[in-house]
Queue: 2 jobs
Job 1
Amino acid sequence: GISSCLTIYWLVSGYGLRAWRSLTALALVVAGLAAAFYLVGFTSPTSYWKSLLFAFRSTVSLTDAQINLTAWGGLFQVVLRLTGPVLLALTLLALRGRVKR
């Protein structure tokens, strides 16, 4: 319920006060899902570094680069497109709070 959402919010960003937490969470999500892309996300084999680049691009862009993804890859991309902007926004919120002090 509500308490679990607040706990996740605290863990990920310290209630919008800890920029390093949200950046760390973003890096972990991107790296983890890049590994998932590498293992089962693409229809043709690719390197981990290309998977990492694709995962990073998926967090900050809504354009599709005509990449053939498996069903799992499509799901991973949706997760990145939802979590990436949220974690970036939490980082900016924390940085804004630091600058305004």
Job 2
Amino acid sequence: VREGTDTDRRILEVGPGTGAVTRWIIPAMRDGDRLDLVELNESFVARLRHRFEHDPAFQTVAQRSRVLHCGVEELAAGQRYDLIVSGLPLNNFSAEAVERILAVMVGLLQPGGTLSFFEYIGIRRLRALVSRGAEGRRLQGIGRAMDAALRDHEIARDRIWPNVPPAWVHHVKV
């Protein structure tokens, strides 16, 4: 969010939860940037809306922000974003859901836009090695979906060692 052009940007945060990442996005926003947050969990939606009303840091961009109580798949197909930041725990979903969610997010990007999402380092692969049956197949399918999304489009991968567990942040440009 800190990088980019001087033009106004549309930013989407997918799965913001209580706003832990949002609080880092807000100070990096420029005056003309707009922020949409999509969250399925009703309690998190209420908490986020409360923060935009009462938290001084969130209030600075409240007029340029929307908290949408829906899944990313429910956003209008015609909407386009310059930046998408996802906090969704993709390893917890089915392989088909991961494939669909990644495709939707990529489809919401403006040409030249960037999608950033995280995954814990080694956790999926380790779990896939020790899991049998349907769970092992699910994790392998998620790996294939992630590899397909990253292949030819990943522009950077940041290692976040202080996170517990450590995480990769993947950056994809289309």
